[in-house]
Amino acid sequence: NAGVTQTPKFRVLKTGQSMTLLCAQDMNHEYMYWYRQDPGMGLRLIHYSVGEGTTAKGEVPDGYNVSRLKKQNFLLGLESAAPSQTSVYFCASSKIAGGTDTQYFGPGTRLTVL
Amino acid sequence: DQQVKQNSPSLSVQEGRISILNCDYTNSMFDYFLWYKKYPAEGPTFLISISSIKDKNEDGRFTVFLNKSAKHLSLHIVPSQPGDSAVYFCAARGAQKLVFGQGTRLTINP
Question: In Å, how far is B82's CA from the nearest CA of chain A?
């Protein structure tokens, strides 16, 4: 099992460019999440999905869109990147929502927006 | 409004001693609490958790204590080992989502 994988690992964008971050999990988990980690801010939830075809907003959703067309994949899109979106992005998955079933995290994508 | 707070950005402990990491929360509706450990250039990994109906959970060298009246939880690591050097995040579950603290960087000195 690869667990949770993220593509790409690093990316540099110019302001206004778009990109898509891909998250894949092979654990047949229902729930998937996108977080961003910034210094002194911990992990903040951007969007999440409770199953194939469903998505919901988290704490900091502005400027991002997501799609969950397949159960194993969760895509995070930036339509028009801004320097404030420079961050490390983590994807996670869990069998159920939090609690007794823990979230498993990918290795992260480091994004820099110039 | 930070619902989960880790007020110590960093902590330095001598190898073999006890490490105590603290976390405070404000939302009394949180029903489950977790600690994650993160090494550089890796994603966080689950360490230990506790239900809100308990006040202590132990797993080997790691013990988590929950004080609901004070809305405070702590992670004890004893004895501390060099491999424990990492960033530790506490998290609380509410409305089927996790809310994370800012993290505490633990450094174990030989």
Answer: 22
Would you say B57 and B50 are in contact if contact means Cβ atoms under 8 Å apart?
A: yes
B60 touches A at CB < 8 Å: no
Query: Distance (Å, rounded) from C-alpha B61 to C-alpha A28?
Result: 31
- Tens of pLDDT along B37-79? 999 999 999 999 999 999 999 999 999 999 999 999 999 999 9
pLDDT tens digits for range A33-91? 999 999 888 899 999 999 999 999 999 999 999 999 999 999 999 999 999 999 999 99
How far is Cα A5 from Cα A107, in angstroms, rounded to an integer?
7
* B82 three-state secondary structure: helix
Please give the DSSP secondary-structure letter assigned to residue A84.
Answer: G
Assess A40–B contact: CB distance below 8 Å, yes or no: yes
Burial degree of B79 (CB within 10 A; 0-12, 13-18, 19+): middle
